Prior knowledge:
The chain is α+β, with helices and mostly antiparallel strands. It has two domains: about 5-85, Phosphorylase Kinase, domain 1 (2-Layer Sandwich), CATH 3.30.200; about 95-275, Aminoglycoside phosphotransferase (APH), C-terminal lobe (Aminoglycoside 3'-phosphotransferase, Chain: A, domain 2, Alpha-Beta Complex). The chain contains ten helices and nine strands. The strands form three sheets. A five-stranded antiparallel beta sheet has the order 1-2-3-5-4, with helices on both faces. A two-stranded antiparallel sheet has the order 6-9. A hairpin with a 4-residue loop joins strand 2 and strand 3. Helix 5 (about 140-150) crosses helix 10 (about 260-275).
Amino acid sequence: xxxxxxxxxxxxxxxxxxxxxxxxxxxxxxxxxxxxxxxxxxxxxxxxxxxxxxxxxxxxxxxxxxxxxxxxxxxxxxxxxxxxxxxxxxxxxxxxxxxxxxxxxxxxxxxxxxxxxxxxxxxxxxxxxxxxxxxxxxxxxxxxxxxxxxxxxxxxxxxxxxxxxxxxxxxxxxxxxxxxxxxxxxxxxxxxxxxxxxxxxxxxxxxxxxxxxxxxxxxxxxxxxxxxxxxxxxxxxxxxxxxxxxxxxxxxxxxxxxxxxxxxxxxxxxxxxxxxxxxxxxxxx
Length: 285
């Protein structure tokens, strides 16, 4: 991909914004351009025309997302998008988040045509990912990972049923509390999936049995109350939460082949799969 910083600077000057400052690298590269604008540089999952239609759809069901201000073609499929910067105000209102997600899930599937089925995402080919990094994992940790896969055997086939329109990655890092209420950010993994696809990540952050991230213990209860029901005891939701933990570990193992910090985090996560009673919390990367 072309130099994200150079593209962000070109876009900022075109739009009369201050010089951008790097905020975060990930699936996209984010820059701050003044007090009220974020520049996102990356290859969008859908054409920008579809992105604008999505923004209108979310507005129609009162699901708050960052406002799309403008976009610039950066070449080679890369787009620089100017988005409203959300200024955080206080703690996240998880009850209101649950209400928004319920409205999202209530949409008919054909209201959001073209969304992928959740199982099509490459990193969700769990067995292939495990085979790729198997030789980099010690026997004890590998046994723990494989035991988890056996426990939830059949999860992939059952993931094809009872689909709804999903955000795809709802957790504390992707929700910001604004003066007008919570805002859902980072929609790169939106898809058609079981409802548990949007419950599972938050369960990982707030439930003791999968609390690897140190999240608040009551976030999911508040979310479920706003949503209108808990999926804590739903088999599919439990399977998806478990698979997210497996995938999060395997991806750090793979990244750790060339990245020292990723290797350190991979080791931290593998301690959990070895069954160590004092295994440390995981750190998002």
